[in-house]
Every structure is written in structure tokens, then in C-alpha cells.
Specification:
alpha/beta, 6-stranded parallel β-sheet, 11 helices, 6 strands
């Protein structure tokens, strides 16, 4: 029995919207000031929920308060925009009956800022799952398994779209077909971490994904 494309599960930052550079700058500054012994801090935490980031790196309540206050201010001033072609792809697959969900490590407060700039998110997507909806951060596959579950589907009936190393690992471990977006990492750096690499969203269609799935052994 061939795989079917019944639901698309999208990471948000760095996959659909162009924010990773902004976040890298922010977290690099935090790391330099507060965790100078971890030079790759900004890259190490990609895909981590704020709750787990605090538990791992900032267990002290006073430090958490400082980071949270600075993050809230930073996110309120961020610019959120779709990568070129991403919106067209979502509309194309929806027209072909595919359910769509965002699966993000961002919390609900941050998402309120996103909705102010991209109100169409709430009508484009059938479900939006945030950090409050799952207890484990990527690379744990829990979030993508939950994404399939909310549609009453198996992960094998879903396709995950991700850009970060931890997110790609989560997608693959969930059992879903995983497409890696080389938006922030060189294609060769993620090629072994997913089923297929896309360098951009230009001219992507339902038919292209269906063809990819048709080549996968049952």
C-alpha cells in the first residue's frame, strides 16, 4: 500500500517564516552575556521550547525572568513574513484536500505577535500546536505524532516540513515522511537527516509531494 499525503505538518520559524536570523542574533547575545562557556548556544537550542530551555540552561528564577522579559520585548518588535512561495504551496495542497497544521516550539504569547502581522495563519491552518501542547522539545517526536493524532491519522499519512537539525530528527523519528528546507543550513548538511531536501518553496505543488511518496516502499 503506497503512502498517502493526507496532512502537512509545518514547523514555523525558519521553515515557513523568515525569522531564524533574527532569533540567532538574539540568542547569541544572550549566550555571550550569560553562558560564555557555550559558544554555540544560539545553534544548540534551535527547536527547544522555552520551558525546556529554562530547565536546562537557566534553572535560576531570576535569570529566567531576565531572559523572558528580554525575549518578550524582542519578539514584539520582530518582523514575520512568509518565505517566497510558501503561501502558494499551502494553498495548493489545501485545494487538494490536505489538512495543514503548524507544529511550533513557540509559545502562545509569541504566536499572538505573529497573528498580528500574519492574521491569515489562523484561517490557512486547520490546527496550530504550540509549546503548551506538548511536554517534550524536538528532537523528541512527540509533537509531530500529536500533529498526526489531532487529525485522526497515522504519522505515515503525514508529511513534515522542517529546517532545523532537531526538528528534522523529530520528523524522522515520528514516522512521517520528512522534507528538509535548506533555508538556514546548507543542503548537504541536512541531506542525511531527512527523506528529501528542498532549497526553497518556489513552484512546489501537491503533485510533487505525491510523486515523492509514491517512490517510498510501503
Amino acid at each position: 500500500m503506497k503512502r498517502t499525503f493526507r496532512a502537512a505538518l509545518f514547523d514555523l520559524d525558519g521553515t515557513l517564516i523568515d525569522t531564524e536570523g533574527q532569533y540567532t542574533t538574539f540568542w547569541a547575545e544572550i549566550g555571550c552575556e550569560m553562558l560564555p562557556n557555550i559558544p554555540d548556544f544560539a545553534f544548540r537550542i534551535k527547536g527547544t521550547t522555552l520551558t525546556q530551555l529554562f530547565a536546562t540552561y537557566f534553572p535560576e528564577p531570576e535569570k529566567q525572568a531576565i531572559v523572558k522579559q528580554r525575549l518578550d520585548v524582542f519578539e514584539a518588535g520582530m518582523r514575520y513574513s512568509f518565505y517566497p512561495g510558501a503561501l502558494d504551496f499551502i494553498q495548493n495542497i489545501r485545494a487538494n484536500g490536505v489538512k495543514c497544521a503548524i507544529i511550533t516550539s513557540s509559545n502562545a504569547l509569541k504566536m499572538e505577535q505573529v497573528y498580528k502581522q500574519l492574521p491569515e495563519l489562523q484561517t490557512l491552518f486547520d490546527r496550530i500546536l504550540t509549546a503548551e501542547d506538548f511536554s517534550a522539545s524536538k528532537p523528541d517526536p512527540q509533537c509531530y505524532r500529536l500533529g498526526a493524532e489531532v487529525f485522526g491519522l497515522k504519522p505515515e499519512e503525514c508529511v513534515v516540513f522542517e529546517d532545523a537539525f532537531t526538528g528534522l530528527a523529530a520528523g524522522m523519528a515520528s514516522g512521517a515522511y520528512t522534507i528538509g528546507l535548506a533555508t538556514g543550513n546548507p543542503p548537504e548538511s541536512i541531506r542525511q537527516l531527512c527523506h528529501t531536501v528542498w532549497t526553497d518553496w518556489h513552484d512546489r505543488t501537491y503533485g510533487e509531494v505525491a510523486d515523492l511518496l509514491s517512490q517510498v516502499a510501503p
